[in-house]
Amino acid sequence: MPLPRFDRLPADDKAAILSVARAHFARDGYDGASYNKIIHEAGISKTSAYHYFDGKSDLFATVLADCVTRAQTEIGDWTPATDAAGFWAQLTATSHTLVQHLNTHPDDRSVLAQAPRSPEPNPWTQAMVDDAIRLRLVNPAERTLITVATQGVLDALDDHALDHPARASEIAGQLPILLARLWAATAPAP
Question: Residue 162 contacts by C-beta under 8 Å, 6 or more apart in sequence?
Answer without folding.
Answer: 102, 109, 112, 113, 168
